[in-house]
């Protein structure tokens, strides 16, 4: 087929949902298989953080994390020894956290479930496409170099890069896409979905999870809804990273459709070191709610699968803090996982992207406001500078 126009017939779940979008492959009513042609081969690369699959993998996982220039923006000659030092110092504490989850991170099996669900949804929406989902983790297996070989062997006509980070950041999405570009030299026309912070399926999946947690607790009235996202140093955001703006947009989109939980706030977890991070912190918001006689319902906002930040930090550390400060009840919504609205959005985002030229574009109605210089839509990901050192990482 070559690298010309894609001839597909996807079946969108809600055809009128994005009237503003560019014409996509679904706007071309032709059936390749009906004409005896082979299906278009589509490779969808799902990116995520990764996590250790055993206690022995904790230290190398941490080393891979801290040697990333997007995390510690020092020259390699200084960054690599520092990464070895940090990973050695943090190994035992991190192992204790993973022990709570059975000695390993669940992020890979959860992402594999999402990949299977997405393949099935792509087959439903676009039966003329031979779609296969591949997983490339940033800091532990399967890493990009291994996945790149699998994708090249598949010999796709089209490649869609789909980070499982709803909100773009130089420290997550940009790092993963750069890593992929260094490793993949195989066939296929490529484009990137840089973010989807306000997509309808993401929003609905979070609403469903929040309502389930609230309903299961008997719909308590003294509840404050806390949207908790992973934090970043303030200086990263001040340098033009769009992450905070997108996180707040996600929270506002969800809250607008849950009027019964009108008391809500955005907060940020996982803070380390003395440098100023995004505010307010989740632990401070829990203390404040307790002092005001309120319980909280925590909705993890920037995570689409369960892992250490949800199963340990939210379910153990913050639950313990809530009990100490009288912030009760303490409820927690689940991540989107394989909920149908979320998986449907990923499929639609993938197929819509095939109808446009290469480069990075968001899915849904979102567009970063002016002034966010690190937005992937306003500058190529390759031009996005690596991050600043993260103080306190040692």
UniProtKB/TrEMBL annotation:
Residues 1-36 are annotated as: Disordered. It catalyses: Fe-coproporphyrin III + 2 H(+) = coproporphyrin III + Fe(2+); heme b + 2 H(+) = protoporphyrin IX + Fe(2+). One of its GO terms (biological process) is heme biosynthetic process. Residues 21-36 have a biased composition (Basic and acidic residues). Pathway: Porphyrin-containing compound metabolism; protoheme biosynthesis; protoheme from protoporphyrin-IX: step 1/1. Gene3D superfamilies: 3.40.50.1400. Belongs to the ferrochelatase family. NCBIfam families: hemH (TIGR00109). Catalyzes the ferrous insertion into protoporphyrin IX. PANTHER family: FERROCHELATASE (PTHR11108), FERROCHELATASE, MITOCHONDRIAL (PTHR11108:SF1). This is Ferrochelatase. It comes from Phenylobacterium deserti.
